TrEMBL record:
GO function term, MF aspect, one: endopeptidase activity
Domain of life from the UniProt record: Bacteria
Keywords linked to the UniProt accession: Hydrolase, Membrane, Metalloprotease, Protease, Transmembrane, Transmembrane helix
All residue ranges annotated as the CAAX prenyl protease 2/Lysostaphin resistance protein A-like domain in the record: 126-210
GO biological processes: CAAX-box protein maturation; proteolysis
Pfam families: Rce1-like
Listed name of the protein: CPBP family intramembrane metalloprotease
Organism listed in the record: Duganella alba
């Protein structure tokens, strides 16, 4: 019952809450970035505490959740992929920015500054780092490792992949149809990658590395400019 209760929360309760919050129009209270970062950390931390309790109660081991040391060839190669690929992505992005025409670069900088989700001050950058660690490790563990383990006996492997991907994609909230579709498709692809390799470590690195590299590459654009 504890497995089903946590799975129900991850598949239905949390995604519905996120969708509702993102689509509210009237009486919406705007929180600061610091408040949003702290709220995310709190949500992930409390859910991870529930996960630890449920796994202890039901005898799930870290290996059951995809946290065993990489042993197979696919898992090892996939672990090397983000370690080598993420720095290459960063340098390719900076190189592309340098080669941009001035007007396109200015438009890109304006778009970055318009995003209210990205940090601005040094304190916000530090908190964003912690938030990214919680999101990347926590949600991968919950929505990939745990949900796949719990849902597979009921739905089969690919049923668990599909439902877990739909739930996690919906958990990103709703901004527009394209954003929601992209979130769901990306979540399903991550779940497929986990099932194929049987290991979470490389997915955690990817999930943490991509947003961190994005913010690092935009640091000079985002930080407050002197008057």
């Amino acid at each position: 019952m504890t497995d089903l209760a946590l799975a129900f929360y991850l598949v239905l309760v949390l995604p519905v809450m996120q969708l509702w919050r993102s689509t509210r129009k009237h009486g919406k209270i705007t929180r600061s970035r610091t408040q949003r970062y702290l709220g995310t950390i709190r949500t992930v931390a409390l859910t991870l505490i529930a996960l630890v309790a449920v796994c202890w109660w039901n005898g799930h081991t870290p290996s059951d959740l995809g946290l065993a040391p990489p042993a197979s060839g696919a898992a090892i190669w996939c672990l090397l992929l983000p370690l080598a690929g993420l720095p290459l992505m960063y340098y390719a992005s900076k190189s592309r920015e340098v080669k941009m025409a001035a007007d396109k670069r200015a438009a890109m900088h304006a778009q970055v500054r318009a995003s209210d989700a990205l940090p601005r001050t040094p304190a916000e950058f530090k908190l964003f780092l912690i938030t990214t660690l919680f999101i990347g490790a926590g949600w991968e563990l919950l929505y990939r490792g745990y949900l796949t383990l719990v849902l597979t006996p009921w739905l089969g492997t690919w049923g668990a992949v599909l439902l877990g991907g739909l739930a996690y994609g919906a958990g990103h909230g709703y901004a527009n149809p394209r954003q929601l579709t992209t979130s769901i498709v990306t979540a399903i692809l991550f779940s497929v990658a986990y099932v194929v390799t049987g290991n979470l470590w490389w997915l955690i690195l990817v999930h943490i590395g991509i947003p961190l590299l994005s913010v690092i590459s935009c640091y000079k654009i985002l930080k407050p400019q002197p008057a």
